[in-house]
Amino acid sequence: MPAAIKKTIPHVVLLAYVAVILVPFLFVLLSSFKANNVEIATRPFGLPKIWAFENYKEAWVKAKISVYFWNSLYLSLSSAVAGVLLAAATAFALTRMKFESASRWIYQFVLIGMLIPGNVLFIAQYLLVRNLGILNTHWSLFLPYTAGALPISVLLIAAFMRSIPGELEEAAIVDGLSAPGLFVRILLPLTLPALVTVFIVNFLGNWNEYLLANFFLNKDSLRTLPTGMVGFRDAFQTNYALICTGIVFSVVPVLVLYALLQKNIIEGLTAGSVKG
Amino acid sequence: MKNALRNPYVYVAFILPTIALYFLFFIYPMIMSVYYGFTDWDGLNKPNFIGSDNFATAFRDPEFRSSMLNNVYILLFSCCVQVPLIVVFSLVISSVKRLQGFYKTTVFMPSILSTSVIGILWGYIYDPDVGLLNNLLKLFGAGPIYWLAESKWAMLSILITNAWQWMGFYIVLILAAILAIPKEIDEAARIDGASGAQRAWHLTVPLIKPVVNVVIMLSIAGALRVVDIVLVMTGGGPAGATEVMASYMVNKAIKYGEYGYGTALAIIIFVFALVLTAAYQILFARRQERLEY
Amino acid sequence: MKKKLTSVLAAAVALAALLAGCGGGGNEPAASGSSPASESPPASPSESPSPAKAENFTMSLRHIQIGEPQKFRKAILDDVVKKTEEEVPGLKFELDGVEDSVNRFTKLPAEMAAGNPPKIMSIFGGAGDTQKYAKAGRLLDLTPILEELGLKDKFLNVLDPFSVDGKVYGLPIGGNTEGIFYNTEIFGKYGLNPPTTWDDLIKAADTLKENGITPFAVGSKGAWVPNMTINTFIGRLAGPETITGFTTGASKWNSPDVVAAYTLYKEWVDKGYFTKGELGKEYGDMLNDFVAGKAGMMFDGSWRSSAFKNDAVGAAVAGKVAFVSLPPLPNGKGDQTSVNANYGEGYGFSSDMNENELKAVKAFIKNMYSDEMQLRGLLEDGVLPSMKLSEESIAQVSDPIVKQVLDVLNGAGVTFPHFDSVVQSKVYTETETQLQKLIAGKATPQQVADAIQKVQDEENAAAAK
Q: pTM of whole model > 0.95?
């Protein structure tokens, strides 16, 4: 018996933690189906008396979640892909091509970027995109997102490429392959695991980014999910059921993605931070 | 050009886009920050050079000082409360066999969500009238607490939300290191008769020290980076009780148009981050080999 | 360099177009807002077979009429937009609704600094808003347009906060006064007199407090809300001329009379007259508490009257709400019938306009600032006209609260502005910061007043240079 208790204690502790994580979601989910604030306040964990599915329709239309969702998806994807490709090309040149001393300098130069906390550059970047005339366009996020991911991406991909033995490409070069050909046909496929990792780190970072998105874009039709949701909350300050519906809309897609790709996501994010 | 890998044109073509973007969005803004930091620029009129006035003002500015203090609170809370909890939870998760994957997946989950959505979610949980917490308190007959409206609770509320979001992330980091420890070491200790707790403390903890160091470093960096959650949940209020350096900087620049002063604050944050990281490295983290993940 | 910028811009536009295309149906409602009215005819004619002569162009229009309580004002705007689009060939407005204080204190300042404000925008009069931006050359001088449209003399004497050196840069949409809304049902239930004398007001507050009802609903997360009360306290305790005197140096924030206003507010906080946890409450929460009967009174702007119509958010208390001005204060200075009157909110126009856009602006002004819309604003939304309306028009008012608002103004010996349209923006910011400190118990009234006066002195000195 004591052995059994000993075995259960960790589970009790962990289930309590899991409850702390999940209960807020449950609360939000239940609230989103309730008709009004009174019902939320009086029966926080009761099932809704009448399931108010129309909240979902209303939020979808009023909050323009579809617009925000699309904006987020397309921006996060495009800048994550751009970042990965640029970083891979650079990492290839730095680790594979025969310009060792230049490469060493460039590598160190790029790594300096990791010392600078993101929000320190916020004002200057704001002024920069403004001077480029791209404030209030998706370029004003695409470029900083892509650029912001470069130092860590170069670091991770370069580390991975260094671990790939050189025999393959020597053979390829003897066969007459050029450097770009070598990069595209040999190195990129071999580096794929690292590329996926870097892509996930970048994608989620962009997907969740709030500060730049909030201040660099003003038009509602351009907003991304994080800023759009805050705007939605500000507009419907006290309609909690509707706000909860909005939260459900913005959280579910990420959770579905997480359920499908959890192993890659966890590995990607933790690797991204440790190397940094 | 016999050797394809010595083609300078290809080399430049592969490196230039990265360097150009990097220069434009990192190096150039950094240089401009330093320049603007010494001016009184208000965004509308011509900037005037005013020497180090902004920096002197910053250290006299009571609002900035209190926001700096709030960053220190976050830092202390992360390192002194969160990190021990993180280590304990990691050890507990590593000790169970059943449901280990479920625990890991669940605790990690909040860290993939957008901070702004988490801010909205928790703002609702803290709501004095309909929120989850006060509903729970009511069950025990305790009376409503104005979580985000009272200075004494507001910072704590933010800290809890921040911990809720990020603890799982660090737990998974440390868990990976624990699980990477060869089984034989643990077995040997078990045969020697060491209890679970003894093994954890004397064996596992020393072995995962490098990762714990990484977690502390990340916590320090994270504590200085906190801004989204404050902007979304309280906007720095009530009466500046939750203002952090970064949110104060953003407000000063964007809301009040004090770009010169704002960039001076940005530079202070940067120096602050560098000094803290360096200090921690020198004081605590002895030269350890780089963690291979 | 310039060429490069244009090409970046062009690429950006192309990208945006691509996005819109891919977004399909989802993207369309975003541009035209949630009201069906603005989606009707003008969207399609550009593709009609008849050779379109006019070049299509879109203009950004920033407004603050979002959420349920603003729906009457949004309807007026939508009609003006529709009419203007019909009159100006090729024009399509791109409406962008942003919450009031976010627009005023975050978005517009940033856009003004960046030099890319919306073409038409909701803007406030005063030194911190219109006048500041006009001086920086960001706003369109409307004087010639007003003359051309013959509107010059149609406005009441309300254009000063929107003018610099005699030139007009913005037009107030209407006016309001700030006073006390109270719930007549709750007052009846506890046998309370309407709060028209100071003693009745205090007695009402105390009685409500004893019965577990918040005397005054307030949401002080945005400090502009409690600042309304402070402003009227100052006008009454220190005299109506005090507020305009801050920028000239004729009055001081830390004079005993102004400090008394802050002291009174703090006293009410300590007595529990205001919503508990007010610093965490939004402006919307304040209306909610009042409508839910959790509070018996609230100090708010007369624009809130439209919320208590039968088809509005406050329908639950429709017919049970009355409006009075703050009763005479026993130790007040100056005319105790004086009330605050603001003609602060209006529209401004970017100085960066091409010929087509200028035409659109003219049409917009003609349609928005007409007798018809002014009267609709008064009747449907309870907004006081900013232009001269005939007696008969005003006599059409049937809403009881709007009538009470008009009575309050007619009965006032003098009016005084809100200091947010008088003092410099840094000073105004300081009043917000300091008032929240006062409410949080972090500063005394005297400290608050001293801190504000310090910034006022600096700003006055800077302005004198």
A: no
